[in-house]
Design goal:
Blueprint lengths: L8 H8 L3 H8 L12 H14 L2 E7 L5 H9 E9 L2 H9 L9 E6 L11 E5 L12 H11 E12 L7 H19 L13 H11 L1 E7 L13 E8 L2
Helix pairs in contact: 1-2, 3-4, 6-8
């Protein structure tokens, strides 16, 4: 699962027993060598879809980590890109690899909790990749309200969401075991580390977005293929802030 430059088992164990913020601070220098970074196989199709939806002037990468989503925004935004994350260590890695180039919009790296964003309605586009498992279902409406508050009218909140693993498949049992282990860990250990893979269900997410004031549309990402029943393996959620 991990490249040779990735974290050791001991480092992962220390991270798993830390808070979310502290855990990612520790993991940050080796994060891009782990499977936790969103792969280019997902980032590239999303970038292509955004190019068809754009252009955009300013973009926000929510829970940006070391900046994989920031790189996507740079391809579709003309003026300004902002990455926001709660982990100072992840932001430091993003800044360290940030190399300005002609024609690339300015990038700002901001430390903040996604549940309390320090911006006004200044963005045309917000994206997020792989971070929603860090928020409990009851936190989603507040999180989505925060995103809505920083988008201009007509601004879009866009993110990919994979189809759930089929019951009984190896992926199903893997995710079930991981979430169960995290629940046991959080029941026995403090501080908690919230990361659950099976709580971000498409139907519930779309309902929360609609209640928050978004108009929701789903786009297929054909590059990621289809399941045996013909349904997409991954959809792109495009939530537009209503006026």
């Amino acid at each position: 699962m991990f490249a040779p430059q990735g974290p050791t088992f001991r480092e992962l164990a220390v991270q798993a027993l830390s808070s979310v913020e502290r855990g990612y601070d520790l993991l940050a220098p080796k994060f891009d060598h782990t499977p936790f970074r969103t792969p280019d196989a997902i980032l590239t199709p999303v970038s292509r879809a955004l190019q068809r939806l754009g252009p955009f002037d300013s973009g926000l990468d929510l829970c940006c980590g070391t900046g994989a989503g920031v790189d996507v925004l740079r391809q579709v935004c003309r003026e300004r890109v902002t990455g926001v994350d709660v982990s100072a260590g992840m932001l430091a890695e993003g800044r360290a690899h940030d190399r300005a180039a002609p024609g690339v919009p300015r990038t700002d790296w901001v430390r903040a909790d996604a549940r309390a964003l320090p911006f006004g309605p200044v963005f045309d586009l917000a994206v997020s990749f792989g971070a929603f498992g860090h928020f409990l279902p009851r936190e989603r409406p507040g999180l989505f309200s925060q995103v809505r508050s920083v988008l201009r009218p007509g601004g879009r909140f866009v993110f990919p969401i994979g189809a759930p693993a089929r019951p009984g498949s190896p992926g199903y049992w893997t995710l079930l075991a991981f979430d169960a282990a995290m629940r046991v860990r959080n029941a026995l250990w403090r501080p908690s580390f919230v990361m659950y893979y099976r709580t971000f269900r498409l139907t519930d997410v779309c309902a929360d977005l609609t209640r928050t004031g978004f108009d929701v549309r789903l786009h297929t990402l054909p590059e990621l293929g289809r399941r045996p029943d013909g349904s997409p393996r991954c959809r792109l959620v495009v939530a537009t802030r209503a006026a």
